[in-house]
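Summary of Year 1 activities. Much of the first year was spent building the evaluation harness for sequence design. The harness presents a backbone, in tokenized form, and records the residue chosen at every position. We chose the following record to illustrate the format because it has been used consistently in internal testing since the harness was completed.
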């Protein structure tokens, strides 16, 4: 299958905290039908790969033949969403199935981004550590008899072994690699030969892991560092892309492009080994990305903006499922789904029955039988600040920030965004305006009152913090310049 291209305490409801402390002590009441030979699970997560940064999602520029082939052999979603628009909160949401107000990770610290004179509010308290009281996918599978391994970026604590993983390779609190070429300066990954490429190395480790003799089914969580900065592509691919003209806002950076194709090549290597070992018929493979791509580097048209924004380009991501003989081949699904759904979906697909509460729903019947999901809304909460990457180039609401404190929701084809500094709203009809270019807030549409009430009720149900304290250093007359953004 591979194309060998050369080349502080958080604020949360007491009942949720007690529930998950109890669950972490194995009050799961779950079981798996071991006589059914439960499947292995491989969850592959790219870093900062945009919704349209792969060909099967519409890119006419990036070359991703292995992921394209995998999409044809499985089922992919065209309207899948991350739980947050940047790294740490998104990963906490995915691994726990809980939205940001539940676990308190809202952003990559600090929460006070941008010039202090341009922030009207004191942001909510933020944490970067996923508390051990929260149950992760790994812990649920581990308690059901799975061997578990995390291999790659962790970023929500110092060591994934405190969160249900038997083994950790390369995972630490670091949010990005020091270098994609060895020496890596990674406290959890020994250096390879000088010049060894990080994405290749992680794939070598993954291949070695799945080739081992396992006494139990395994869960391999493979969160690659690619394509996060620093942008360092494999040199042959960089040369290839330097000679390729940009298309539709994609292709402005050859290293970014090379990182994508090298990631794709390595996923092809991994899937080749899954096939050659005869594991494919009993292995569930899921591929996605943690958030949208960096907007100025790679436009996600027709979607607006990118990483760090709560417009569609920041939260919509590729998502595909592969399991021969179980997951239908060559299917695409347009129902809006969330990475919060992955926890209950994985448990359901592998046959683990649980009364566990998450903010997601199982997609099993949608995937296998195309049974529609019950009507629901998807919510995002970001009561903090995230500065612009490049002033005026992020397709954001204002030139200084990718986003200011706010919340958003999607319900059916409607998207509502609320901004806490000025109590303003934006309303979009995604069925006719996926680029969120025409704000319908002033149209007095009845649906807006419904959406506002839904958002208010959700805040109360999740005990979501709403910043209200004014920043004493705020200066309404100061225009300033955007600070160079990160994460």
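For this record, the design step produced the sequence shown next.
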């Amino acid at each position: 299958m591979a194309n060998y291209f050369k080349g502080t305490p958080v604020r949360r409801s007491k009942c949720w905290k007690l529930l998950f402390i109890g669950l972490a002590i194995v009050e799961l009441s779950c079981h798996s039908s071991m006589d059914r030979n439960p499947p292995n699970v491989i969850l592959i997560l790219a870093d900062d790969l945009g919704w349209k940064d792969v060909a099967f999602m519409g890119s006419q520029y990036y070359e991703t033949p292995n992921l394209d082939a995998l999409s044809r052999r499985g089922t992919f979603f065209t309207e899948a969403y991350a739980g947050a628009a940047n790294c740490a909160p998104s990963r906490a949401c995915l691994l726990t199935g809980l939205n940001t107000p539940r676990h308190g990770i809202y952003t990559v610290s600090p929460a006070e981004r941008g010039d202090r004179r341009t922030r009207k509010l004191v942001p909510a308290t933020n944490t970067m550590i996923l508390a051990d009281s929260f149950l992760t996918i790994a812990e649920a599978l581990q308690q059901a008899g799975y061997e578990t391994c995390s291999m790659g970026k962790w970023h929500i604590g110092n060591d994934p072994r405190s969160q249900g993983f038997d083994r950790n390779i390369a995972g630490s609190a670091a949010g990005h690699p020091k270098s994609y070429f060895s020496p890596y300066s990674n406290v959890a990954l020994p250096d390879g030969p000088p010049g060894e490429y990080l994405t290749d190395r992680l794939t070598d480790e993954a291949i070695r892991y799945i080739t081992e003799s396992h006494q139990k089914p395994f869960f391999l969580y493979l969160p690659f560092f690619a394509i996060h900065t620093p942008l360092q592509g494999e040199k042959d691919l960089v040369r290839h892309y330097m000679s390729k003209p940009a298309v539709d806002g994609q292709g402005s950076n050859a290293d970014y492009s090379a990182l994508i194709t090298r990631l794709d090549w390595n996923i092809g290597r991994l899937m080749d080994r899954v096939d050659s070992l005869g594991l494919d018929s009993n292995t569930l493979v899921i591929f996605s990305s943690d958030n949208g791509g960096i907007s100025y580097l790679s436009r996600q048209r027709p979607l607006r903006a990118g990483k760090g924004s709560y417009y569609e380009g920041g939260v919509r991501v590729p998502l595909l499922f592969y399991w021969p003989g179980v997951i239908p081949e060559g299917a695409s699904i347009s129902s809006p789904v969330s990475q919060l759904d992955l926890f209950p979906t994985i448990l359901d697909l592998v046959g683990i029955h649980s009364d566990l509460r998450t903010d997601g729903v199982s997609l099993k019947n949608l995937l296998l039988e195309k049974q529609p999901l019950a009507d629901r809304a998807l919510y995002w909460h970001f009561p903090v600040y995230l500065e612009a990457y490049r002033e005026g180039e992020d397709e954001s609401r204002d030139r200084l920030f990718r986003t200011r404190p706010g919340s958003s929701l999607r319900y059916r084809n409607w998207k509502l965004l609320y901004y806490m500094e000025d109590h303003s709203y934006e309303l979009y009809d995604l069925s006719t305006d996926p680029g969120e270019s025409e704000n319908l807030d002033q149209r007095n549409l009845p649906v807006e009152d419904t959406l506002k009430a839904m958002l208010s009720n959700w805040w109360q149900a999740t005990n979501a913090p709403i910043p209200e304290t004014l920043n004493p250093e705020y200066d309404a007359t100061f225009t300033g310049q955007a600070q160079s953004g990160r994460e």
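The two ends are 33 Å apart (CA to CA). Quantitative recovery figures across the full test set are reported in Table 2.
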